[in-house]
Amino acid sequence: MATVAVVAPDDKSSLHARSADEMVEIASYLFSEENVRAAKQTGADAIHPGYGFLAENPDFAEAVNAAGLTWVGPPPDALRAGGDKLEAKRIASKAGVPVVPTGEPAEIGFPLVVKAAAGGGGRGMRVVRDPSELDEALEAARREAKAAFGDDRVFCERYVERPRHVEIQLLADAQGNVLALGERECSIQRRHQKVLEESPSPAVDEALRTEMTNAAVAFARAIGYESAGTAEFMLDGRDFWFLELNGRIQVEHPVTELVTGVDLVQAQLHIAAGDPLDVHSDLRGHAVEVRLYAEDPRTFFPQTGVIERLRLPERIRVDAGVAEGDAIGLAYDPMIAKLIAHGDSRDEAFDRLRDALKETEVEGVTTNLPFLRWLVSHPAVRAGDTTTAFLTEHPPLSPAPARVAAAPWRTPFRLNLPAAASAAPPDVDILAADHRGPAGGQSSVTAPMPGTVIRLLVRAGDSVRARQPLVVLEAMKMETPLTSPYDAIVRAVHVAEGDRVAGGTVLVELEE
């Protein structure tokens, strides 16, 4: 099967462009008509959208079908129903699938989370713990959602503290057959984006797997789903709630492929060709994946540069998006590669991944490799006792505890005592950009990464509180608020909205 790569003007030297049989330059990856033009120009008969923004765009799916091309993905109507989070919740509830309550802030209370109705991948998402933070969170979420998805609709949902994030991989064909291929544990996240994924989940037993699978399949049937897709759930003990359906192949799909022996992209192509599902699998062993990124290993801010040396492990599966000599820029996600290890047991899979990370070398650009090595050896991770709050409770590269006490109750249990107040995990989405200098001294807030100043929230002479947002930077359609490290007076502001800045640029000067 021959392939045609489409490339944006600033991405012509990319690895995917060099790997395909043919390459066509298009004005933007997000322009539907450009992708269709490229297919027509080269005589291609099908379009696979990968896992980018267009993968879940029903208008793009319709444009591909209208052009007489084969769309390798779900039907447009299913994408509309599953891609709109509010509509998806309504359908899920009607199908008997539990969902997290949504509504007006006064109805659901705080903490709550603001989410983009049309998006995913952490874009357009803000946790709000106090009513005073709500207006800014809504505005920021709308901006980010508009930039990423072209749709600024947002909604408020009850925020569940310290849940697990577990998802069910689905395949469905045009004949109405729907198959689930086990679950993936994706709880360890930074900035609402996944860092480590594994299958099966250490928190899911056979009975719970059956319950969650039935819920995922029920929702897929309710929207007439076809192709590969992922039903995402929050899990708290044995209670779970439907979050959304990702109508595309997931970045973490290799862990499912390794434990089931099913090539999910190949299955997508067969389904798009009209073939009925012919997949038979059982979960075999354990697989774990981490994402090697060009980003700061402590703050997770994206980094840029040229990869001068790249040595990737050979004894595990590696899916790489760049090669030695390639440049990492600001326009696109800075993922370098996915490293996926399989073993007969969970311990064996993690040991293989640990050893593979020791072999990995990247020079020329800052990466999260030190963080990944720390992560896969962390006692809490090895014990399988992690939630979405893991990185707030265990800051990146912090000393790990010598051991993690096993949770005393692994099965449902209720103790009739007054509930203790749960301490909220610290918020890592709003970050102080500097540290206190000498008492009575002066300090500055600097750009932790290259980006664009999209909001300037203070002027010279303003009084600011500790952790008050001063500047909002955007990089790769993600916003990062930079905050004051302490109570201070704004001495000077050196940037304006719309300015592009390099990492290390002084943005605001402060004095006590």
Key features of this structure:
512 residues, alpha+beta, Rossmann fold, Dna Ligase, domain 1, D-amino Acid Aminotransferase, Chain A, domain 1, 4 domains, 5-stranded mixed β-sheet
Quickly describe the structure.
With 512 residues, this protein is of the alpha+beta class. The chain has 14 helices and 30 strands.
Helix content: 25-40%
The largest sheet, given as strand count, sense and whether it forms a barrel, is: 5 strands, mixed
Task: Indicate the proportion of strand residues.
Answer: 25-35%
> On the 0-100 scale, what is the average pLDDT?
88
Head-to-tail CA distance between termini:
65 Å
CATH level-4 homologous superfamily of the largest domain: ATP-grasp fold, B domain
Over all CA atoms, what is the radius of gyration?
23 Å
Total domain modules: 4
Give the beta-strand count. 30
Our count of helices gives 14
